[in-house]
Design a protein that fits this description.
The protein is α/β, with parallel strands linked by helices and about 350 residues long. It has nine helices and nine strands. It has a single domain, classed as Alpha/Beta hydrolase fold, catalytic domain (Rossmann fold, 3-Layer(aba) Sandwich), CATH 3.40.50.1820. Strands 1-9-8-7-6-4-5-3-2 form a nine-stranded mixed β-sheet, sandwiched between helices.
């Protein structure tokens, strides 16, 4: 069954009047390096050469983060702990850096929910458009999502390779392309077999897969889906921003895979843009439908819908990046976690009050 997202319009219209600035997004995997254009002698443009390309519209101009992504006085702030280093057996010789968000409301005596974000450096970046710690602070405080631990994990790298950054997500410098874009179970082993046992030792996390979510952007989004697909007994909720369900390493096969296999207990929210990478590399070239991000996202949505999955989606005007996904991240989280327990007792004063910090014991 398809769900409409009426609240997205509100999020996109009633936003803070924040100055628009370009924020680095994930690398554009559909485009290779581009050589500088050779210089032309003066006047050659008038001798049959095409005129210089005129700048097109900024398709991201109207997407600005709203109040749910900003800090507010009186809202308890969670703590981002780390960085921690996780050696990998699934990818020998590599290690994964990760951070753990612990909400102010976390009580070790009460089992909590879990959300795991790929490309952790970007999702925890407080100068970007995602600013996930702020989103979690605000939504947990207002009881719009359950209390949850969140993990921000970077792609694997060798000890000699640099840590990914907002400017370089690691496609050229880490194991990111192999881990995120390959449709096998090796990255699921990193999350479920290597990281989860460490988290369970440190925090009281529920083992109910309905209380485990995983998400990402671009290649991190297809990686999140692959973890849930490979390990449906461990993760049921998936968040995808401009997901790379394309033929980088066979990801366009997912629509067919979904149709050919039994339905799995996965709930997913897909976001993409009409001006995402559209199957034509930088500088033109033949159109390749298997590398058309928007086409393949819509195709996957239809396969999931036809199969009866709990799927929500929204398509914007954005290019490849988080310029739309960031502002609607709060709404994506609300929808994914919408059925966390609530009390309808009119006399339940706790349910009707803000979710304050847990008392120190």
């Amino acid at each position: 069954m398809k769900h409409t997202l009426s609240c997205v319009v509100t999020v996109l219209v009633f936003v803070l009047a924040e100055s628009a600035h370009v924020i680095p997004g994930p690398p554009d995997p559909s485009r290779g390096a581009t050589a500088a254009a050779p210089s032309r002698p003066p006047g050659e443009q008038g001798r049959g050469a095409p005129p210089p390309a005129q700048p097109g519209p900024d398709y991201n101009a109207y997407y600005q983060i709203g109040p749910d992504s900003l800090p507010h006085d009186g809202v308890p702030k969670g703590e981002v702990r780390g960085p921690f280093v996780l050696p990998s057996q699934a990818y020998p010789g590599t290690q994964h850096t990760y951070w753990v968000y612990v909400p102010a409301q976390y009580d070790p005596a009460v089992a909590t929910s879990l959300m795991v974000f790929q490309d952790g450096q970007a999702f925890k970046d407080m100068d970007g458009v995602l600013r996930t710690p702020n989103v979690l602070d605000n939504l947990i405080y207002r009881r719009e999502i359950p209390v949850m631990i969140a993990v921000f994990i970077n792609p694997g790298r060798t000890a000699e390779q640099p840590e990914p950054t907002p400017a370089e997500w690691g496609d050229r410098t880490t194991n990111r392309p192999t881990e995120y874009n390959t449709l096998d179970d090796k990255y699921a082993r990193v999350i479920v077999d290597e990281m989860m046992p460490v988290l369970y030792k440190e925090y009281n996390i529920s083992k109910d897969p309905d209380r485990h979510g995983i998400g990402g952007a671009s290649s991190g989004a297809i990686a999140a889906f692959t973890v849930a697909w490979q390990r449906p007994n461990d993760f049921h909720l998936v968040l995808s921003i401009v997901g790379s369900f394309v033929n980088l390493r066979g990801g366009d096969a997912y629509a067919d895979i979904v149709e050919q296999n039994d339905k799995k207990p996965i709930r997913i929210f897909l976001q993409d843009g009409r001006n995402d990478n559209r199957g034509v590399g930088r500088g033109g070239g033949a159109y390749d439908q298997r590398r058309d991000w928007f086409y393949q996202n819509v195709r996957l949505m239809r396969a999931l819908t036809d199969k009866g999955y709990d799927v929500n989606y929204t398509w914007g005007m954005n290019t490849h990046g988080q310029r739309m996904g960031g502002p609607i991240l709060p709404e994506m989280m609300r929808w994914l976690w919408r059925d966390h327990p609530v009390s309808t007792d009119v006399n339940d004063a706790i349910e009707r009050s803000f979710n304050e910090s847990a008392k120190k014991k």
